[in-house]
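User: I'll paste a sequence; please echo it back and then give the predicted structure.

Assistant: Echoing your sequence first, then the prediction.
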Amino acid sequence: MGEVYRAHDSRLRRDVALKVLRPSLATPEYVQRLSREARATGSLNHPNILAVFDVGTEGAVPYVVSELLEGESLRQRLDRGPIPFRKSVEYGIQIAHALAAAHEKGICHRDVKPGNVFITTDARVKLLDFGLAKLRRAEAPDDMDDSTATQATRPVVIRGTAGYMAPEQILGEPVDPRTDIFALGAVLYEMFTGRRAFHRPTTAETQDAVLSEDPADPLTLNPSLPVVAVATVRRCLEKNKEERFQSARDLAFHLQQVEHSATSTGPHWMRRRAVRRNLLLLGVILAAMAVTGLLVWMLKPPTPMAFRQLTFHRGRIGGARFSPDGVVYSQAAEGTPLQVWRTWPESLESRTLEYERADVLAARGGELALATARRFVGGERFVGTLAVMPIGGTPAEKVKNVEDADWNPATGEFALARTLGMGEHSWLEYPAGYTLYETPGSGSILYPRISRDGQSVAFLEDPAGVGAKGRVVVVNRAKQSRILTDVWANARGLAWSPRGNEIWYTAGESGTNRALRAVDLERHHRLVYDSPASLTIWDAAPDGRVLITRDDERRALIGLPPGEGSEVDLSWFDSPGLASISIDGRYVLFGDRFGGVYVRDTRRMPDGSRPPPMKLESKAAYPDDISPDGSAVLATSSEGGELFLLPTGAPNEGTTAARFAPAARLLHVPGLSSYSGSRWFPDGRRILCNGLAPGHRLRAYIVDLDHPDAPPRPLTEDGIWALSLSLDGTQAAASGHGLGVSVWPTDGGPSRTVPGSEAEERAVAWSRDGASIWVFKRDQIPIHIDRVEIATGRRQLWKTLAPPDAAGVYSINELQITPDGKSYFYTYRRVLSELYLASGLK
């Protein structure tokens, strides 16, 4: 897709590689993609990844400047003949390290192949062309099996190279780091055997082989291969990505073990003789150990795994910790506010400590650390004030804006996870007042736990700032941090293991249950316990006891459609999340936890039933808004880094949940790297979106779809985001800075605060005449919705909303009202938890 020149940088006096886009591809879209992908590559500072120095346009010529490499590609090296096994493993380890660095930055290569691996003259591997598969045109003939196919204008987008694409790539399904692991497995297979794993005469046949056939046994092609190397390649090439290595770091570690296992350079028959001798000696040792183990087992039976239920009321557990003589926890039971409780493992009774609206954070001696005045800020996140109280005493407030905390029992020092709210960055203090770690952007920090020696803090970090996802991070007092896992799509709960040598956490893939998992400081992963339910670990004691909850988590979509006299349940599956409604209330836009985007007609059919939702074909995860004419939907990716335009089109007939035919369109907004909520202007030609730009916090921008390459126009100040537009598009209502609701003219005039509006209130809808807005707070159950006159601040209670069964409901997080005030729809979240005392977990 371009031409590369050797060039000289006269300022720094060094030779560089200068890549220019071919004139036939120098369209605004491709130029913008080249710039964005080059910047993404430039953010990866790793010795095994090509370094990018500059990107820009000179006249009409787009260019990228990178380091100049001397050597040859892995494809050229393979074409010259077999690669020694040790050298192949060494190359594989370096590629895996490069992928791990990219995956930690949220970047998937999607085109790992020998042609994109460069071997320098000093035997260092460099991974090239991150994301450039996006820029290739789908013009190559079918028999070119080493060309990258891209079909950017078709409903199913396939990116990758035939023979190295994972099955999910070929099927047009979402890709993740495990997709790159499959491709690396194909590269390893080729280095180990000298043959391509899925080579066939045409691209179609090659892709079919990837989907339905296994490659030839590597041992038949190279009998000298160690068995452990063959097993490693086979695991990489599993058709089901759940059965592959789950991270590139795990694969790198495994390849290092393969490298260490290859200790003999003699012939294969000599190694087999040595293996037989060693196995004989090992057998004798194992026999002796077995006799000893049998005696120990006969004298002392192993402790069985056991779970003792501690709570029996229907409700949500907000926190649970061991205290010196029992267990303390907070629970919102049977629809009541959060209360602090105390129980004893040998008893079935719990006693309230008579303190409400507080969560248990930590316990030390006879004291508790609580989060008081908790307010819901979005996603799975609450922020409050740290208070300390003797058990049975009165709490004393200490620190504000605390999201979570832990207590060092030896020194009394606190580890505090703090933030100013949704859309703001978070930071970790240990001890209080000393910042150890800060999240880039608007990420979140949850479940900080101090190590047994008091020198480190482990926690879950969600880069998206929602609090529902997370990766395990550990940081020491010297501010040295390590990311120990990839980002799990469903993560909640963390504790140091009873022995203190691992970090135990509960996490699962998107839409699946959370299992109890372990990782140590060397990134060795293992599964501790799984069950057909979502688990949350709260605490672990040195004697092996663990506090864990079993959580039933659901969302529901409720509303009053036009012409109805009572609320109806419009839920689909168990996790609908309301995004927006049409002006007349006829259509509802919502998403689910599996990344689906749906539009549902709220009217009844002649038989009294309602039509099923219509599903839009997209890779977007979160819908935002329906266009005024109903022809398109705005949506964002799961990490918030991409903004999509999804045409609705006509649904196919005869399906339970009809699918829309047209393909999604990726919107490139210059200067914005993240999006959080977007709204259509009434003219359908502009978008109001909240986003992040370099050097700025979250704020609102106006995007002109008629001029997509023009920079977006800022509307609000940093830290203030817009939530709704008036029907004529002249005004936007916004929140932020912990202040009341403000109104911003979209033509750029001065803003004003709505008189009488309160901190943390959200403006959800405008009246038809633009004189009033509806406001509410999301952390109150039931919620009270007021209609407020913008000019005078006069408030009037419009409606009080609460689900019929309020047990475990902790937020009504999304609410939409039609301009005439006759119809409304809302989504609520419910968690029903049971607290258990677990023993025997290892």
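The two ends are 53 Å apart (CA to CA). The chain has a mean pLDDT of 83.
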